[in-house]
Amino acid sequence: MDLPANRGRWRRRSARSHLPLVVAALLLLIPASLLFSSAYSSVLRSLFPFSASGRGVPPRCGASRELQGERFLWYAPHSGFSNQVGELRNAAVVAALLNRTLIVPPVLDHHAVVLGSCPKFRVSDPTALRAAVWDHVMQLLREKRYVSMGDVVDLSPIKSVVRTIDFRVFISLWCGVDMTKTCFSGVCCSVSGGSSSSDDYNRCRSMLTGLGGSEKGCVYPVQDDCRTTVWTYQEDLDGALDQFQPDEELKMRKKISYVRRRRDIYKALGPGSAAEDATLLAFGTLFSGPYKGSESYFDIHESPKDQRIQSVLEKIEFLPFAPEIMAAGKEFARNKIKEPYLCAQLRLLDGQFKNHWKATFSALKEKLKAIESEMKGSKASGPVQIFIMTDLPQVNWTNTYLADVAKNGRYKLYTLKESDELVLQTAERLMTAEHGIQSGFLPKIMESSKKGCDPVQLPEILLYIEESVCSCASLGFVGTAGSTIAGSIETMRKNNVCKL
């Protein structure tokens, strides 16, 4: 809005004419402000939840009546999909242990957010991780590519032990911002509306990431990371030194002065702690992995003295894909391959795996020799059916062992592409089902009629369907050593998810 032409002159005259009065008022207010500074500050925060400078001081929480009395847990997923699933499982344990509602995030692009290396004590700060996740989620929103982890992963096994809320629902209610551009179908559009002001999004970013700091009753940002902490659920070991520590050379080179301690997460963040009253408990990473006899960050694998948590640990040990994905894998196995087959997962281009082609191909060669030997013993005839899932495009198979296998009449290969009709149809069925929204908390005020909205793009789900196909391979499975994808498939096969 344009200011009146005389406004500047009026303000200058006013300042001069009332200067003695202003000085007197300030002199009277100073003692009162010192006496009642705490109460005065609280009143100001309740009346003006954000600073005039727009720097993102967190507002009072629970603006929506729907969320009053609820306490939530948020974390920063990162890296590849399998790592993100691992974090989701750990987050479910923490949410159950601390009696908080788990905010289920979207699936992030592969390595769009990276942690670093816990063993090398070189990781992103938890606040920076949370900010990077928020910024990437906003990118997914703008590009209409949002898909929830709850859409892809079946959360029904933990529904009885862990309360969940979809990120879109939480953000629209907690921050009052518009998340409808992350929706594919009507229920999501009905519960994800709000303001589209950029200031509101910025304030929400500040709250969710903890950039505005900690505020009692609102946000408690967890700043402990894997350089200093291994979370446990063992009060008797709280504060004990962890087995894995930075060596002296690393301490000198990186100027590391800290040590890693094992900390009881319930004692640190549960009843009686500074975090207990916060509406939102915001972690950085919750990913963990074994390293030199220890865990990199999260070491809660059993709880024999607490049967409720033990039940959660058992239920999250394996979280299957959504029914639509599993059905697509079975359909491809039954109707396309038809006969018993081997699955070969060959990770050849990503990260460290581009340097280990020889070992990856050697494992496949040995597996094929074993199958052919068994077939000779049983006098079976015909080619060996092989389903190949690999990140190496087929046009680049030339002069590789894959090209040799493809040309060999003893083998018949099958692959899937993102553009295949089965994949596209499954993606549409998956998004229409709205598992992510439907599996968690929904506002009681949700409109009875579904809103129409401009749907997001269909997600890329080829990887998930390929894993499902591999879970059905009756001749066995051979995967790239060290690949989390191979580990995921092994877990699926161990749990017998495919019954043709």
TrEMBL record:
It comes from the Eukaryota. This is Uncharacterized protein.
